[in-house]
Amino acid sequence: MAIRVLLVDDQPLLRTGFRMILEAEQDIAVVGEAGDGLQALDQVRALQPDVVLMDIRMPRMDGVEATRQITGPGRDGPAKVLVLTTFDLDEYVVEALKAGASGFLLKDAPANELVQAIRVVAAGEAMLAPSITRRLLDKYATHLPSGDEPVPDTLNTLTEREVEVLKLVARGLSNAEIAADLFVSETTVKTHVGHVLTKLGLRDRVQAAVYAYESGLVRPGAQ
């Protein structure tokens, strides 16, 4: 079945461009559009999309609050949110990720990246581009712990290997890259990631990356 996508952006021209790109794919169907967060909530309820391509800055209700209401804590709906951000990285993206977004994409990304991002998010994975993730989190280094503070007690529930995996997730590495780094199989990495998410009560890899920075486990700017 085709992936059902809702386009949310206050610029009609951008929505038209996204629609043309996505409707050229046999496995993707654009089921609706919205020009702000309030319209997005109505459309999500009415159309039940699989993926919401969500702009951040919009009138009436921004993308952060809309994301929170669609996929935040306690929400069990099927819709996944893929946040759109500008090249200089919107200051609200971290909040959108914490609210439940499954990843983010640059507005000027090539068409093939947009299509791939939709497929990745629809499959239940997180869209984490390593270079962009590092730039995003390092940009907000002044708002994150320095790394000198004691780590939260919740981290004590993780095994040593699970902590290693969490650090690599925070760097934006894929399962394959983590497997190569730790000399284990991808299946083993998936198991470790699953345990980390369960133990820490996190939704996905995106929230795991944010958690690793906010807890002080990973220090902004560290390699």
Global structural class: alpha/beta
Indicate the percent of residues in helices: 40-55%
Q: Report the radius of gyration as a whole number of Å.
A: 17 Å
H and E order: EHEHEHEHEHHHHHH
Distance between the termini: 41 Å
**Bulk shape:** globular
Mean pLDDT: 83
In terms of DSSP E residues, the strand content is 5-15%
Sheet with the most strands: spatial strand order: 2-1-3-4-5
Largest sheet: 5 strands, parallel
The overall strand count is: 5
Q: Which stretches of 5+ consecutive residues score pLDDT under 50?
A: none
Number of helices: 10
Report on the structure:
- The chain is of the alpha/beta class and 223 residues long.
- The protein has ten helices and five strands.
- The protein has helices spanning 12-23, 37-47, 63-71, 93-99, 111-122, 130-139, 160-170, 175-182, 186-200, 205-214, and strands at 3-8, 28-34, 51-55, 80-85, 103-106.
- A five-stranded parallel beta sheet has the order 2-1-3-4-5, with helices on both faces.
- Strand 1, helix 1 (12-23) and strand 2 (28-34) form a beta-alpha-beta unit.
Write the layout of secondary structure elements.
Elements: E1 3-8, H1 12-23, E2 28-34, H2 37-47, E3 51-55, H3 63-71, E4 80-85, H4 93-99, E5 103-106, H5 111-122, H6 130-139, H7 160-170, H8 175-182, H9 186-200, H10 205-214
Helix pairs in contact: 2-3, 3-4, 7-9, 7-10, 8-9
